Amino acid sequence: MDKKWEHIYGPVPSRRLGLSLGIDLVPYKTCNFDCIYCQLGRTKEKTVERKGYISAGTILKNLFLALETVTKPDFLTLAGSGEPTLNSEIDIIISEIKKKTDIPVAVLTNGSLLSEFEVRKALLKADVVLPSLDAGDETTFIKINRPHESIHLEQIIGGMTAFRQDFEGAIWLEVFCVDGINTSDKQLQGLKEAIERIRPDKIQLNTAVRPPAESSVRAVDDETLGKICALLGSKCEVIVKRDFHIEGRDSIIDPDSIMAILSRRPCTLSDLTGALNTSPNHILKTISDLLEKGTIRSYFQNRELFYTKAS
Ligand code: SF4
Fold first, then answer.
1. Is there a contact between 97 and 73 (Cβ–Cβ < 8 Å)?
2. Is the C-beta atom of 213 inside 6 A of ligand 1?
3. Could you read off the pLDDT of 58-89 as tens digits, one per residue?
4. Cα 113 to middle of ligand 1, angstroms
5. Which of 80, 151, 229, 305 has CB 3.0 to 4.6 Å from 147, enough for a Cys bridge?
6. What's the 83 CA to ligand 1 centre distance in angstroms?
7. DSSP secondary structure, 78-131, as one string
């Protein structure tokens, strides 16, 4: 991107959302949690106040200016450096985006405010909601997410469950695993039961790879992540952004290999990594180049993002 627009960043290749244009809805570290693994550092003052931290008008103006020049992204992603649902104008922002563009809208959220009817109603217009859930019991929840004192886990699980009943889009639930904090058999069993109530379309496992808020936070190893994935069932996948080394495949995949597959059928990122025996990190850069050149296009269908050869 040649020019920077305030509150807009990217587009950047994302493991979960393909080529994602980020939209920051709140000022730095405006959050009702203080997660021990947060990459933004500590939350100085937790807040539960919903207000127009950044006006819908400002955000929309900058977004539509940015869209005139950037490569068309796979998703417009409402996220940023805090909890985006704290912005009380999020409903206007999503509605206006949906009126003016066909690019799917994703919302990255800690999920805590899904307990509020107004927030659930606002997010109904999104295409994908990506909430977090790191614990199935209150003690672990407090330990890992360090929420505002007025927030309790059961309200969140209830809110996510209610949202699932009304929301027709996709819910991709992220679980952040921290070694020794939320990974005992008992804790994982509680988490599994909570997830069964919520019924997300996907469960995406992550762990610490970048410097977190607390230096004591330890990543979970691949073998343990594999076991947790198996426990949480067939909808679960590992999305850790490590630089995987796969024998014979330690570099970026070339465009011809990707086009050979996409010429035959549309594929998700996961289809491509399977077919090419590689990791998403080795594909995403080539995909974003192909999108930029107009050689391929993306579309969101049946709650999945697909890539196909441009006609
Ligand atoms: S919810 Fe997100 S922004 Fe808030 S503390 Fe946790 S990781 Fe950081």
1. no
2. no
3. 999 999 999 999 889 999 999 978 999 999 99
4. 13
5. 151
6. 7
7. EE-SB-GGGBTTHHHHHHHHHHH--S-EEEEE-SGGGGSHHHHHHHTT-SEEEE
Distance CA 221, CA 158 (A): 31
Q: For ligand 1, what atom is nearest to the CA of residue 176?
A: 7
Which CATH architecture best describes the domain 255-309?
Orthogonal Bundle (1.10)
Residue nearest to atom 6 of ligand 1 (CA): 35
Residues of the chain with CATH 3.20.20.70: 8-238
Q: To test the ligand 1 pocket, which listed residue (40, 132, 141, 214) has its Cβ within 8 A of the most ligand atoms?
A: 40
Peptide bond into 11 cis (omega under 30): yes
CA of 35 to the centre of ligand 1 (A): 5
Coil, strand or helix at 287: helix
Contact between 30 and 47 (Cβ < 8 Å): yes
* Residue 37 CA, closest ligand 1 atom number: 7
**Residue 220 · residue 181 · CB < 8 Å:** no
Q: Does the CB atom of residue 36 touch ligand 1 within 6 A?
A: no
H or E stretch covering 171: strand 170-177
Query: Ligand 1 centre from 147 Cα, in Å?
Result: 10
What are 287-304's pLDDT values in tens digits?
988 998 999 999 888 788
DSSP 30: B
d(CA 17, CA 202): 13
Q: Give the global pTM.
A: 0.87
Judge if the beta carbon of residue 91 lies within 6 A of ligand 1.
no
Distance 34 CA to ligand 1 centre (A): 6
**CATH superfamily assigned to domain 8-238:** Aldolase class I (3.20.20.70)
Strand order of the β-sheet with 128-131 is 8-14, 18-24, 75-79, 105-109, 128-131, 170-177, 202-207, 236-238
